[in-house]
């Protein structure tokens, strides 16, 4: 069978996006061209690679095998570029990294900045995903490094400490909730919320509310944790943010906070990778750096 690098890059992009349309866009192809390439790949291989449904596409067992080998090929290409970097200027290496919302907004910027300043020819492709999605991506070879919480199974993967992340409820200083030392998530489902426009944390909270038999009453959505804090301080409603956020926000506004008592609200985040032999030199360096100040 004859797959070229464009085919493999497209296939991985479609799996990552869960959609042929968005995968084609990420791969820089038109939808008709991408669809034809995917059909040709299935004809060439003689197997179905994607299950197509109303909510998007998922890999078949054969598709997962292809994704694994496609990622290995991409890693080998990255390793080749690393070695050629010493001989040719302007060639850049990209390290893929997936992480939950709190890690991306609160913990990764400083640590990434330090490492990237020392490696000016290496870029980081940072994507926001829930921990379970990060584990699946690592297992299927769709990323080299992930940040995951201790709420998911990581069998077969390597874990190293990153940071402890605690979620808190923020509200205006006169809100009745602040009379309590801590609250359970189910105790505040009746409240009006300020939510995130999108992201892994918001998806997690929406899912928790559904499990509890309800849904969050979202008055408004914003793109940042600071936006949630500003609106909560102004009495619009309550919000849920990482504890590290309020330390900064309290320097800018009058804000109340109370801890969530649920076990899942305190998460140990870890740097998660496959075995080191299957990682590029750049990815190993970044993973070592991220884990160097863990917990």
Describe the structure.
The chain is an alpha/beta fold and 295 residues long. Among the domains are: 1-89, Winged helix-like DNA-binding domain superfamily/Winged helix DNA-binding domain (Arc Repressor Mutant, subunit A), CATH 1.10.10; 165-265, 3-Layer(aba) Sandwich (D-Maltodextrin-Binding Protein, domain 2), CATH 3.40.190. It has helices at 5-17, 20-27, 31-45, 61-85, 101-118, 131-139, 200-211, 225-233, 243-249, 281-291, and strands at residues 50-53, 56-59, 93-99, 122-128, 145-148, 158-171, 182-183, 192-196, 217-222, 239-242, 256-260, 266-273. The strands form three sheets. Strands 3, 4, 5, 6, 7, 10, 11 and 12 form an eight-stranded mixed sheet that branches. A two-stranded antiparallel ribbon has the order 1-2. A two-stranded parallel sheet has the order 8-9. The model has no long low-confidence stretch (mean pLDDT 89).
Question: How do the strands and helices of this protein lay out in sequence?
Answer:
Layout: H1 5-17, H2 20-27, H3 31-45, E1 50-53, E2 56-59, H4 61-85, E3 93-99, H5 101-118, E4 122-128, H6 131-139, E5 145-148, E6 158-171, E7 182-183, E8 192-196, H7 200-211, E9 217-222, H8 225-233, E10 239-242, H9 243-249, E11 256-260, E12 266-273, H10 281-291
Parallel strand pairs: 3-4, 3-5, 7-11, 8-9
Antiparallel strand pairs: 1-2, 5-12, 6-10, 6-11, 6-12
Helix pairs in contact: 1-2, 1-4, 2-3
């Amino acid at each position: 069978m004859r797959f070229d690098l464009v085919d493999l890059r497209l296939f991985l992009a479609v799996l990552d996006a869960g959609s042929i349309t968005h995968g084609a866009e990420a791969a820089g192809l038109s939808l008709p061209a991408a669809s034809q390439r995917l059909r040709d790949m299935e004809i060439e291989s003689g197997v179905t690679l994607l299950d197509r449904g109303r909510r998007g596409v998922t890999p078949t067992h054969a598709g997962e095998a292809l994704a694994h080998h496609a990622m290995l090929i991409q890693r080998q290409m990255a390793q080749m570029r690393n070695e050629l970097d010493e001989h040719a200027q302007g060639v850049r290496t990209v390290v893929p990294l997936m992480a939950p919302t709190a890690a991306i907004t609160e913990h990764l910027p400083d640590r990434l900045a330090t490492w990237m300043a020392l490696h000016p020819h290496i870029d980081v492709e940072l994507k926001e995903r829930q921990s379970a999605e990060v584990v699946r991506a690592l297992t299927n070879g769709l990323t080299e490094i992930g940040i995951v919480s201790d709420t998911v199974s990581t069998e077969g993967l390597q874990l190293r400490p990153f940071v402890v992340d605690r979620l808190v409820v923020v509200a205006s200083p006169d809100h009745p909730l602040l009379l309590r030392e801590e609250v359970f998530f189910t105790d505040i489902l009746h409240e009006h919320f300020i939510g995130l426009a999108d992201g892994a944390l918001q998806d997690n909270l929406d899912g928790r509310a559904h499990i509890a038999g309800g849904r969050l009453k979202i008055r408004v959505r914003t793109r940042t944790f600071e936006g949630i804090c500003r609106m909560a301080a102004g009495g619009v409603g309550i919000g849920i943010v990482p504890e590290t956020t309020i330390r900064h926000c309290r320097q800018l506004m009058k804000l109340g906070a109370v801890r969530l008592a649920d076990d899942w609200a305190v998460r140990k985040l870890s740097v998660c990778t496959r075995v080191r032999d299957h990682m590029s030199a750049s990815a190993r360096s970044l993973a070592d750096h991220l884990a160097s100040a863990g917990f």
